[in-house]
Amino acid sequence: MLKCKQIVAQASEYIDGDMGLLQKFRFQFHLAMCVHCRRFVKNFTAGIEMIKRLPYDDVSQEQIDCVHRRIAQSKHSR
Ligand SMILES: [Zn+2]
Predict the structure, then answer these.
(1) Cα(50) to centroid(ligand 1), Å
(2) Which residue has the higher pLDDT, 5 or 73?
(3) How far apart are CA 68 and CA 48, in angstroms?
(4) Is pTM, for the whole model, over 0.85?
(5) pLDDT tens-place string over residues 18-66
(6) What distance in angstroms lies between residue 76's CA and the mean position of ligand 1's atoms?
(7) Ligand 1 mean position to 52 CA, how many Å?
(8) Interval between CA 5 and ligand 1 midpoint (Å)
(9) Could you tell me the distance, in angstroms and rounded to a whole number, from the CA of residue 37 to the centre of ligand 1?
(10) How many angstroms separate the CA atoms of 72 and 30, rounded?
(11) b or e along 16-45 (b: 16 or more beta carbons within 10 Å of the residue's beta carbon)?
(12) From the CA of 29, how far away is ligand 1's center (Å)?
């Protein structure tokens, strides 16, 4: 089974759909077992949706990555 750390590391791949079938299955299996990671992925997705809904187009990829990192660090630092 994947470790929580791996879930955090792979969360953006998972949300972007940038993941193989087997990897995705393992990821979802972990989510089914682990309430902490379920909450993490939910918050992570909400953060990304928030960025997408910003009313301006000039957000750089760098800024988005920065937010991703901040979410990953703050929500699951144990
Ligand atoms: Zn977990």
Answers:
(1) 23
(2) 5
(3) 8
(4) no
(5) 999 999 999 999 999 999 999 999 999 998 888 778 776 666 778 878 8
(6) 9
(7) 26
(8) 7
(9) 4
(10) 17
(11) eeebeeeeeebbeebbeebeebeebbebbe
(12) 10
Query: In angstroms, what is the span from residue 34 Cα to ligand 1's centroid?
Result: 5
Residue 20 token pair: 């193989």
- Distance (angstroms) between ligand 1 centre and the Cα of 43 equals 14
Domain residues of the chain, as ranges? Answer: 4-75
Q: Look up residue 70 and give its amino acid.
A: R
pLDDT at 75: 64
Query: Are 8 and 76 in contact, with CB atoms under 8 Å apart?
Result: yes
Helix axis angle, 61-75 to 4-16, nearest 10°: 150
